[in-house]
Write a structure and sequence with these properties.
By secondary structure, the protein is mainly alpha-helical. It has one domain. Helix 1 runs antiparallel to helix 2. The longest helix is centred in the last third of the chain and has 34 residues. It is elongated. The mean pLDDT is about 90.
Length: about 80
């Protein structure tokens, strides 16, 4: 794997970045849900909840992939 300027492989760095941004966005969307509910717009609140759920699933998938990459590195696998 190519190692970037961080000392981590580019792929690992990219997965960490996507996971971070997905978690951060999910946190921010919580405020969007509250804002929509405070404005009485349940359709918009539901939309933001769906987006938040998508980001949560995205972050979880990144975590799984990172675990697989880490396990592969620990065992010396190149798959």
């Amino acid at each position: 794997m190519t190692t970037g300027e961080t000392g981590f492989s580019d792929v690992m760095f990219d997965l960490i970045s996507v996971r971070y941004h997905s978690l951060k966005a999910g946190h921010d969307y919580g405020q969007h849900v509250r804002d929509a509910r405070n404005a009485g717009d349940e359709d918009v609140a539901t939309f933001f909840e769906q987006v938040m759920d998508e980001d949560s699933r995205r972050a979880a998938r990144c975590h799984e992939l990172l675990r697989e990459l880490t396990d592969d590195e620990d065992t010396g696998s190149t798959s």
